[in-house]
Amino acid sequence: MSALTIREAAPRDLEAIIRLHEEDELGSHGDAWTPETKPAYEAAFAAIAASPENSLFVALDGDEVVGTFQLTFIPSLTSRGALRVKVESVKVKAARRSGGIGAQMMAFAEQEAQRRGARMLELTSNKTRKDAHRFYERLGFACSHEGFKKKF
Amino acid sequence: MSALTIREAAPRDLEAIIRLHEEDELGSHGDAWTPETKPAYEAAFAAIAASPENSLFVALDGDEVVGTFQLTFIPSLTSRGALRVKVESVKVKAARRSGGIGAQMMAFAEQEAQRRGARMLELTSNKTRKDAHRFYERLGFACSHEGFKKKF
C-alpha cells in the first residue's frame, strides 16, 4: 500500500467513517449511513469536534478512508493524578484488515497520548473479538480488566 | 446509616477522596496523600472541575466522605451517535463496604447519565475484583468486554 496518512477527521470524512462502522456486525450497534441517521451522526461529530478532550482520527491510503479511531483524554485522580486516554471506536476497512493499518493507528494513538502528557492508554473490546485481543496483547496491552456495559 | 448524600466534590473533599484511594492496594496505583503528591492531585482535581465532560462525586454519610466516583461523558459516533458515560475511580470506604453505598452511587450515576441524555454506562474493573463483578452484574451491567491497559 502507499504510505498511510493519519489525521484528524474532517466533516467530509463522516460518511466514509460511518461506512466503516456499517461493516461491523459484531458490535451490533446498528450503525448505517441513511438520510434518517445522518443528522444524529452529524450532531455527534460536531460534539466531538467541539470537545477539547476528544479527537476523532482517520487513516487514509491515498484519498481512501481505511481506518478510524477516537481518543478521549480523561483527567483522573487515580495514579497520582495521571491523565489517561481511552481509545474508542477503532475500525479498519474489512477488505484491508491484517495489513498493518491497525498497528499504525495504535502507534499514532500512543504517540499522541504521550505528546499530550498522558500516562496510559486504555480500551475495551468485545469478548468475542479474539483476533483483536491477540493484536492488542502483541502491542503491549495487558488484558487486566473486565469491561461492563449497561444500556438504557 | 443516616441518609446518604451524593453531590459534586469540592476542593475541601480532596484529601478524603485520596484517603479512599489509599485504602485500595489492589489497584496498585500507588495513591497516597502526602506533601509530595498533593500538588498533582490538586492539579488533576482542577482539570476535572474545569472539564464540562467530567464530574467527580462524593457520597457523604453526615459529614464523612464514604465513597467517590467520576463520570466522563463521551460523545461518540457508535450506536448512531450515542453519548456514553464512563464510570471511573469508584471507591467505597473499606470499613463501610457491603452496606449499600456502592449501589446508591451507581443508581445516582445512572440517573445523572440519563438526565444528560446518555444511552449507556460503562466501566472496567480489575479481573481480580470478583466481588465487584458480581455487584455490577446484579445492577444489570453485562460483562461483555475485555479491558486492556497500556501504561507508559
From TrEMBL, chains A, B:
SUPFAM superfamilies: Acyl-CoA N-acyltransferases (Nat). It comes from the Bacteria. Transmembrane segments: none annotated. Residues 4-152 form the N-acetyltransferase domain. InterPro entries: Acyl_CoA_acyltransferase, Bact_Acetyltransf, GNAT_dom. The keyword Phosphoprotein does not apply. The keyword Transferase applies. Keywords: Acyltransferase, Transferase. PANTHER family: AMINOALKYLPHOSPHONATE N-ACETYLTRANSFERASE-RELATED, AMINOALKYLPHOSPHONATE N-ACETYLTRANSFERASE-RELATED-RELATED. This is GNAT family N-acetyltransferase.
